[in-house]
User: What shape does this take?
Amino acid sequence: MSNSSEAPPCASPPYLVAWPSLVSRSIAAWDDLATNEQPTRNDFPRSMLEECHSLDDFLVQGGKPLMLWFFQQRSAFMSQKRMKKWSRSELDDYVLLPSLPGFVTRHDCFFVSPFWRTQNHPDPDGEYLRSHQAELESQTWSYIWVDWTCMPQSPRSLPEEAYFHRCLRTMPGIIRNCIGMTSDIKTFLQHIYEMLKTGVQATLAKHGYRCSYVRDRQRFHFSIGTIRNIMDHMTWFNTVQIQYYSGAELIRFEGTLVVDEQMHTFTPFPRWVSSKITILGAC
Assistant: This one.
């Protein structure tokens, strides 16, 4: 006979149970995403993820040495009535996708950053959500990234805070790889593709694009490969202050670019220091 005075064993928090499932589901998803053009196979991200034995173990690393993003599964996004806030109790809604070539692509992933209608919730009555669901229902994709849903929100634990700031710094990588052709940006993307074929200046002249400031149209004779390297390094090596490319010196936090010994200035990039943004030394 059991002793009625004994307390029942404590059940594990749901997120502890859901974490191993998230790991195995994510690795299985990578196999489906893998293509012959993918230069990096699954061995490195898999070993890294399997070494994280809990959600907090994963979060506290802040995505180092490799960032893995939470992407909501299509079924979860299309079935919800309101945009879900990121929650450690909702891990079954997600997969984790590595920030490596071939894993996050326009074919499989979509990016949404809604306009916030209130301070506490971007879409409290689901109006924007229904619009997005209607727009995306006929399109081919499997995973979606929404800031409210895929990044830990306030109030955050210390591990969640570390991961949140890593997300902010690497978000350009998601945007670049996920933005697809929708009706509202169709013309813009067509012009982007046209630039690849006929050149930037020819496309600007053909369609009558104008710059608010003449200096914004200054041309730098960088190859496409160099420009891609600049954008990649700006995303992934976001704490490096000075970067060098084909005779050019870029100081991102001071907002200077030196090309052929001539200095050009731009709005400095924000620097994250101890969870605060520092620009030109001012918090």
Notes: The beta strands are 68-73, 94-98, 109-112, 143-146, 242-245, 248-251, 256-259, 262-265, 271-273, 276-278. The chain has three domains: 14-178, 182-209, 212-283. The chain has a mean pLDDT of 81. The longest strand covers residues 68-73.
